[in-house]
């Protein structure tokens, strides 16, 4: 008996010792204080997540989830509960633990989250945003103006969200584009943090600070300010009242943060050529938490590798690592500045054909990455984020977003029609790990196999045979020959009457109709445009006087074709070095050879054409034919003498194909208008790369 007692004492001592050591290494923080509970909290620079038994140190790894799918603008919130359940499963299978949303979602989102977490072994948690109407920001430009209209709306939307978290709210449809409905499921345990606000317009911040110089102090129950700017005080007031509301009504709380980005970060940007990118700061170090806010607070930033320009030209960042890694150097500086932990709440690169900016050293550009490259780049950024001590990495984004615009293509399309087709030239539409591919299934694959063309009629049946079809993203062309195609071929396209070239002397071509575009398929394949119909030259040459104007720009039937470009950056002068970086562009009309079948081992997601034996297959983005909206068959009208690009309807496009020295006969092709687009979902190659990267943490 005595021996048994000694053994029990020894076991107790061993267990106690193990628990003491464990709690030194892994402190068992309370998720309750003064009767208030939390599902997460900040402690000693780390993020802790309540797992049902104790708060566990957690690296947040996840995705930003948009509020739309093809055919819908964000405010229309067209995603169903079934969509969410499918996506949540895929996100968790990717080894993610967190999603971030930007604003109040419709009830289906919260219902799906409740259902998913009730049945899934792996739970999915939410960092929830609170949107401030950017149209109102532009019009009012001061959160304290009009009897604090913006501030009051911000707080009320936050309080409504608190009630939504607890399944205790009905929102009537009073504001266009804002979620509404009955919210009856309690998901507050899965809401692990607030990220309030948007990427702040620096002029909005500066204007607020200028108009209200004395509004720099606030003392609330949960948050207070120290040496704050008037704008930071506005943030503190909103955050404090939202936290107080939830604590008083539901006895719960959670960590809080505010959206920020490099444009309004608190750092000094060495060698930044644009004063607007360093004119004002939003510094959340000036917003402090009281003891009641025991869940803590953290800083949140959107950090991309290619913008603003100081990421390309800051000598300090360039010299920080060998090889150069300005992204990691910036993250080091950001974390060194902050006493509170930092979350990288947005980062990524798009798997898009179009491009809008270059990263000077890394090549992590804003576009023109294959899906595989997208995954590899994002994985590299996750590693940098983790290594520099951030508490999480939330990728932008889960799904592609057809409604998006990009500064260097937005003048060429119709804003109100963007969700109804997929613009391959607009990089902002292709940041997702989940692609919405056009059509109910993959209609045409560039792979040399003509089986998927069998039911499509010929436009031209003699000599070089020609077929044309289309979907919500591309026009597809197949050229067939009885012999192996081993020389250059030319595809002429007439899109608008009463202009275009009737001949092209450089390769001795003649056209039966005025050709507005000429595609060359050979060793150097590209699409070129008649200079008279070149939107890029009109915008940046005629209207902005930033580029040299091509020959033939003002002449109908000039006999010239010119390469197609998109802009990348205006001319820059780098402070400190006075280095002048000229206006930059890239040739958008260059064509890439490859196989477009996602199931093929040699899949190349950016492939434009495939030549094999006696067959050439080609897919052409609509925007490269000056089509502003294919769903309504609207083309760019003649813009000579105009300060903007206007649309006009058309019925047919005309195609002709031939060899050097031929006269190309043109044949009409058309399609039916469509309303809601058809599409099918596909996980990109980047998904599997991220899945393996997330597995490491």
> What is the topology, as strand order, of the major beta sheet?
14-11-8-7-6-18-17-16
Q: Can you give the helix content as a percent range? A: 10-25%
**pLDDT under 50 segments (min length 5)?**
15-27
Question: What distance separates the N and C termini?
Answer: 48 Å
Instruction: Note the main sheet.
Output: 8 strands, parallel
Q: Give the class-level CATH name of the largest domain.
A: Alpha Beta
Radius of gyration: 28 Å
| Structural class designation | alpha+beta
Total DSSP helices: 13
Identify the quaternary structure here: single chain
Level-2 CATH architecture of the largest domain:
Alpha-Beta Barrel
Polypeptide structure, described:
This protein has 697 residues and is α+β, with helices and mostly antiparallel strands. It folds into 2 domains: 425 residues, Glycosidases (TIM Barrel, Alpha-Beta Barrel); 232 residues, no CATH class. It is 24% helix and 24% strand. It has 13 helices and 41 strands. The protein has an 8-stranded parallel sheet, covered by helices on one side. Helix 2 packs across helix 3 and helix 5 packs parallel to helix 7. The radius of gyration is 28 Å and the shape is globular. About 2% of the residues have low confidence.
């Amino acid at each position: 008996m005595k021996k048994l007692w000694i053994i029990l004492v020894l076991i107790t001592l061993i267990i106690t010792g193990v628990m003491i050591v464990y709690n030194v290494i892994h402190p068992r923080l309370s998720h309750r204080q003064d009767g208030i509970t939390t599902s997460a909290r900040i402690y000693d620079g780390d993020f802790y997540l309540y797992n049902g038994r104790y708060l566990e140190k957690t690296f947040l790894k996840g995705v930003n989830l948009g509020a739309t799918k093809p055919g819908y603008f964000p405010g229309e919130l067209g995603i169903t509960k079934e969509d969410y359940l499918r996506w949540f499963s895929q996100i968790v299978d990717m080894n993610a633990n967190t999603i971030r949303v930007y604003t109040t979602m419709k009830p289906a989102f919260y219902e799906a989250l409740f259902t998913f977490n009730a049945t899934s072994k792996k739970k999915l948690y939410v960092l929830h945003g609170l949107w401030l109407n950017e149209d109102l920001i532009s019009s009012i430009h001061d959160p304290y103006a009009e009897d604090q209209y913006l501030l009051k709306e911000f707080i009320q939307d936050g309080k409504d969200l608190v009630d939504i978290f607890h399944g205790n709210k009905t929102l009537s449809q009073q504001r266009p584009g804002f979620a509404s409905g009955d919210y009856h499921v309690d998901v507050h345990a899965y809401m692990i943090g607030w990220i309030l606000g948007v990427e702040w317009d620096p002029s909005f911040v500066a204007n607020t600070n200028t108009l209200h110089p004395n509004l720099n102090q606030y003392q609330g129950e949960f948050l207070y300010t120290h040496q704050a700017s008037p704008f930071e005080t506005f943030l503190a007031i909103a955050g404090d009242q939202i936290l107080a509301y939830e604590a008083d009504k539901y006895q719960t709380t959670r960590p809080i943060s505010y959206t920020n980005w490099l444009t309004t970060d608190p750092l000094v940007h060495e060698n930044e050529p644009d004063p607007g990118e360093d004119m004002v700061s939003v510094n959340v170090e000036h917003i402090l938490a009281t003891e009641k806010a025991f869940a803590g607070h953290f800083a949140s930033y959107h950090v991309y590798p290619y913008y603003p320009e100081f990421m390309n030209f800051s000598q300090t960042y360039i010299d920080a690592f060998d090889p150069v890694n300005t992204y990691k150097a910036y993250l080091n500086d950001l974390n060194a500045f902050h006493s509170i932990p930092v979350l990288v709440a947005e980062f990524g690169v798009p798997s898009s054909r179009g491009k809008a900016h270059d990263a000077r050293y890394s090549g992590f550009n804003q576009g023109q990455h294959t899906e595989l490259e997208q995954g590899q780049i994002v994985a590299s950024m996750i590693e940098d984020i983790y290594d520099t001590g951030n508490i999480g990495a939330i990728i932008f984004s889960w799904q592609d977003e057809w409604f998006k615009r990009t500064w260097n293509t937005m003048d060429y399309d119709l804003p109100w029609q963007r969700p109804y087709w997929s613009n391959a030239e607009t990089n902002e539409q292709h940041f997702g790990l989940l692609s919405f591919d056009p059509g109910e299934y993959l209609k045409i694959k560039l792979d040399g196999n003509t089986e998927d063309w069998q039911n499509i009629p010929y436009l031209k049946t003699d000599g070089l045979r020609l077929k044309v079809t289309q979907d919500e993203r591309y026009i597809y062309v197949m050229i067939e020959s009885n012999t192996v195609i081993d020389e250059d071929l030319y595809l002429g396209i007439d899109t608008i009457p009463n202009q275009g070239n009737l001949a092209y002397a450089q390769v001795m071509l003649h056209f039966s109709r005025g050709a507005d575009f000429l595609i060359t398929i050979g060793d150097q394949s590209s699409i070129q445009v008649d200079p008279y119909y070149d939107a890029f030259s009109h915008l940046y040459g005629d209207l902005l006087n930033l580029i040299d104007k091509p020959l033939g720009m003002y002449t109908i039937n000039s006999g010239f074709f010119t390469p197609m470009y998109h802009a990348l950056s205006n001319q820059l002068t780098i402070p400190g070095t006075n280095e002048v970086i000229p206006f930059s562009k890239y040739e958008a009309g260059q064509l890439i050879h490859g196989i477009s079948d996602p199931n093929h081992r040699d899949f190349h997601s950016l492939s434009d054409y495939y030549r094999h034996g006696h067959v050439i297959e080609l897919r052409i983005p609509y925007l490269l034919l000056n089509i502003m909206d294919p769903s309504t068959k609207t083309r760019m009208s003649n813009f000579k003498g105009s300060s903007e690009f206007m649309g006009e309807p058309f019925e047919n496009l005309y195609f002709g194909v031939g060899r050097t020295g031929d006269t190309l006969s043109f044949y009409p092709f058309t399609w039916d208008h469509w309303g809601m687009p058809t599409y099918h979902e596909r996980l990109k190659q980047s998904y599997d790369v991220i899945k393996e990267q997330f597995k490491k943490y």
